[in-house]
Design a protein that fits this description.
The complex is a heterodimer.
Chain A lengths: L2 E5 L9 H11 L10 E5 L4 E5 L8 H5 L5 E3 L5 E3 L10 H4 L6 E2 L6 E2 L9 H5 L5 E5 L2 H11 L8 H15 L3
Antiparallel strand pairs in A: 1-8, 2-3, 4-5, 6-7
Chain B lengths: L6 E6 L4 E6 L5 H4 L2 H12 L13 E5 L13 E6 L6 E6 L3 H7 L4 E5 L6 E6 L2 E6 L8 H12 L5 E4 L2 H4 L7 E3 L3 E3 L4 H7 L2 E7 L9 H16 L6 H4 L4 H9 L20 H7 E5 L9 E6 L2 E4 L3 H6 L9 H14 L3 H16 L12 H13 L3 H6 L2 H8 L8 E2 L2 E2 L9 H9 L20 H20 L11 H12 L5 H21 L11 H5 L14 H14 L10 H6 L3
Parallel strand pairs in B: 1-6, 7-12
Antiparallel strand pairs in B: 1-2, 3-4, 3-6, 4-5, 7-8, 9-10, 9-12, 10-11, 13-14, 14-15, 16-17
Helix pairs in contact in B: 2-18, 2-20, 7-19, 12-14, 17-18, 17-22, 18-20, 18-22, 19-20
Chain lengths: 173, 584
């Protein structure tokens, strides 16, 4: 059984409590810019799109890593071993959704690890825009639909924004 | 430093200089942040003899102590300066997400003084701060301006605030829009921007905010959220949002209708909470808010986040307007062109009343849609005679046309949507507010004894004092059940030192008195703590409060009890003993 993070942008209010909870868990401070997920906010259109790591079955970040610092576990979680990571940064452009970044203080790559199976972000979402569910049936379809919006160029932030705008357009907003 | 960024950004637009300075730590335990700390900075820096729109008048922006954390509803952003509309010291605050963004950029607050030689915007990208040319944006409405500011910053996640044509034209009730539909709405903050040739500010902050004990802080925040916030007292904001108040105030019979003539709108169902729900297409929240009171609506292809209660009433019922689609258009136009919906709605309603009374015909009549919608842009751009007249607000319009008896404001600020003739406590709250008629200073609306002066005075005083600290923490109004113990617990866990509810309560009272002292220095007296003739000399009509009054004698009685309760003398001046007790 593989549990995964599922997002429903139609329910996202843009409150960012997920990003605050994530940075509190991983950085011991409130720094949404360092969260492992981010919310693309389009207030004029009244819409927000969460960008989360899809924990790809064949992760491009993993393939790009020359040090084998990135692995995908039996639980489906794609993790970066900070002790092996040299900070070369090759995994960052490899992700089409902008979900791997370079940490400003350690210089190493970082990404969502689903908090090892108990995601802090989901616990803080009061609108059911983020859920932690089995990767099958409808959740798999939902995820596959979102994953088709890939972006090969630009910084992670620009990729996330492009992804968010595509999802928003598809929602007719 | 825990919770605080520890720095204040200073921008002098006349000199074109940008500096930062350490946050004044000596003031923190007395004023905390937000309203209190901004008022402290303002009163130290501002000359009470100088006009609001003078270049030297400082604008002080301040985040709350808890901004940028998981403390719920803590992300509002406060500005203190002097209002071009009232002349008083004026605090205004905005939701959305721009306040915490400033803190993440490394600044607790920002002090803006001077006047740029030409239109500019301020760009903040963490420590990289610059003053940029905004000539190409001058004249543009807010939505387009914000889009351009974000493009200029290069960061899609940047947050912005900007004025529209109304602010550029120094209209005394021009607002500042932020993140599309959130505003520094009242008191003419937009005109202050305009007077400084400041079109907007764009901010990207990527830094973190630390607390002394993260686990403890999260535990306190989560317990407060589960046990106090997400409870029946507040969940109306999640399920209905402020449109619910349309139904509530109509049932209570103090819903301003047709320029404060009636206490009920017999057709309120057309613009009440059920109608807004039908038009709602998504729910929106400010940063770190689990309630999400924002209802994003769309009618006939025109969308807006809102309309909120004040807009539904002042731009709806009070204008005899019961068409939700028209109110949504009105709301969106006000937000885009940059005027406060409360004052704009109230002023249009007064103009409609003037026609009804045969005083002057502006082509505006109760319930008439087309002119009601087109006049907003005329006001913001000063492009027609009637636009220029209505841009004066109710006080100016009353003076020009000898129609003061139809102007519903206090200290020049138009009433929010609760008629004091149905609750005398609201009248006292409006009359004694440091910024004119305001429902965010004390809100005794739900008192079981709405005409019992003694009980209401106590409620107004305690409400004003508590809001002193609540706005200093920049906590949203809609956490109605929050108390100083919860705030003290959050601060204690975050700062790693003991903060007591008693010291926060005292700080609230200190802040209220500090604002009062500034207004006294600026020439305001007890005479200015008043209500307009329309309220004091005519009775409310229709509904449960048909025939209810609030006379000059009622107001005088309440004021004297209020001054006594505050330990102010009979002229409304804080006594030496009170000042000493508050270290003022």
């Amino acid at each position: 059984m593989t549990m995964t993070l599922i997002t429903n942008p139609d329910l996202c209010t843009g409150c960012n409590r997920c990003a605050y909870a994530c940075s509190a868990r991983h950085e011991n401070m409130f720094a949404p810019a360092l969260a492992r997920l981010s919310i693309n906010n389009y207030p004029l259109q009244g819409y927000s799109v969460p960008s989360v790591c899809f924990q790809c079955k064949r992760p491009d970040c993993l393939t790009a890593c020359p040090e084998q610092a990135i692995t995908r576990g039996l639980d489906g979680i794609v993790t970066i071993d900070a002790d092996i990571c040299t900070g070369c940064g090759k995994c960052i452009p490899a992700c089409s959704w902008g979900m791997v970044s370079k940490h400003p203080t350690t210089g190493k790559a970082f990404k969502c690890d689903l908090c090892g199976g108990d995601p802090a972000c989901v616990a803080e979402c009061h609108f059911n825009a983020l859920t932690f569910a089995e990767w099958e049936g409808d959740t798999a379809k939902n995820k596959a639909k979102q994953m088709k919006f890939r972006n090969e160029y630009g910084s992670p932030e620009l990729k996330r924004d492009a992804f968010g705008k595509s999802i928003m357009n598809e929602a007719g907003r | 430093m825990y919770l605080y960024a520890g720095k204040i950004l200073r921008v002098d637009l006349s000199a074109g200089t940008i500096t930062d300075e350490p946050l004044n730590r000596d003031w923190l335990r007395q004023f905390w942040g937000g309203w209190g700390l901004a008022a402290k900075y303002f009163t130290e820096l501002a000359n009470p003899a100088v006009d609001a729109l003078d270049a030297s008048t400082p604008m002080i922006f301040m985040t709350g102590a808890l901004a940028g954390t998981l403390a719920p509803l803590s992300g509002r952003f406060c500005m203190v300066s002097r209002s071009p509309q009232t002349g008083t010291i004026f605090e205004s605050n905005v939701g959305g997400s721009i306040g915490p963004e400033l803190k993440h950029a490394g600044y607790d607050g920002m002090i803006i003084t001077g006047r740029a030689a030409g239109p500019v915007f301020i760009s903040i990208n963490d420590a990289d701060v610059s003053i940029e040319d905004a000539g190409y944006l001058w004249g543009k409405p807010i939505f387009e301006t914000e889009k351009a500011l974000k493009a200029a910053s290069g960061c899609p996640a940047a947050k912005s605030m900007a004025i529209g044509p109304a602010g550029e034209n120094l209209i005394p009730f021009a607002c500042v829009g932020s993140e599309a539909y959130r505003q520094f709405g009242r008191g003419g903050v937009g005109a202050l921007f305009g007077s400084k040739n400041l079109k907007g500010v764009v901010i990207r902050g990527t830094g973190g905010i630390r607390v002394a004990d993260m686990e403890k802080f999260l535990s306190v925040a989560r317990t407060a959220s589960a046990e106090n916030l997400m409870t029946e007292a507040n969940l109306w904001a999640k399920t209905d949002g402020t449109p619910l108040i349309v139904n509530v105030t109509n049932e209570m019979g103090l819903h301003p209708t047709r320029n404060f003539t009636y206490g009920v709108n017999e057709d309120f169902g057309a613009i009440g909470t059920e109608s807004v729900k039908k038009a709602t297409i998504s729910q929106r929240a400010c940063i770190s808010c689990p309630l999400g009171c924002g209802k994003f609506t769309s009618v006939d292809g025109v969308a807006v986040e809102g309309p909120e209660y004040e807009t539904l009433c002042l731009g709806g019922s009070n204008c005899g307007m019961n068409d939700l689609g028209s109110i949504i258009k009105f709301n969106r136009t006000c937000d885009d062109w940059g005027v406060d919906t409360i004052t704009t709605g109230a002023t249009i309603a007064m103009a409609m009343d003037m026609k009804e009374m045969g005083l002057h015909d502006f082509g505006l009549e109760f319930g008439g849609k087309a002119e009601y919608l087109s006049v907003v842009e005329e006001i913001a751009t000063l492009s027609t005679d009637r636009g220029r007249d209505l841009a004066l607000g109710t006080r100016g319009l009353g003076e020009k046309y000898n129609a003061g008896h139809l102007a519903v404001n206090s200290k020049g600020l138009e009433f929010p949507a609760y008629d004091p003739r149905g609750n005398h406590g609201m009248g006292l709250a409006y009359a004694t507010s440091e910024r004119g008629a305001c429902h965010l200073r004390a809100f005794p609306l739900f008192s079981e004894t709405p005409f019992d002066h003694e009980a209401l005075v106590a409620e107004v005083v305690s409400g004003q004092n508590f809001n002193g600290i609540k706005w200093s923490m920049c906590i949203c109004d809609f956490w109605g059940s929050v108390n100083s113990t919860i705030l003290a617990d959050l601060l204690s866990a975050a700062l790693g030192e003991t903060v007591t509810s008693e010291e926060l309560d005292l700080a609230g009272e200190r802040i209220w008195n500090l604002a009062r002292l500034f207004n006294l220095k600026a020439g305001f007296t007890a005479k200015d703590d008043t209500l307009p003739d329309k309220i004091l000399k005519t009775a409310l009509k229709k509904g449960p409060n048909d025939g209810s009054t609030m006379t000059s004698a009622d107001l005088a009685d309440m004021k004297q009890r209020y001054y006594t309760s505050r330990e102010w003398d009979s002229n409304g001046v804080p006594t030496q003993a009170k000042r000493a007790a508050l270290s003022l």
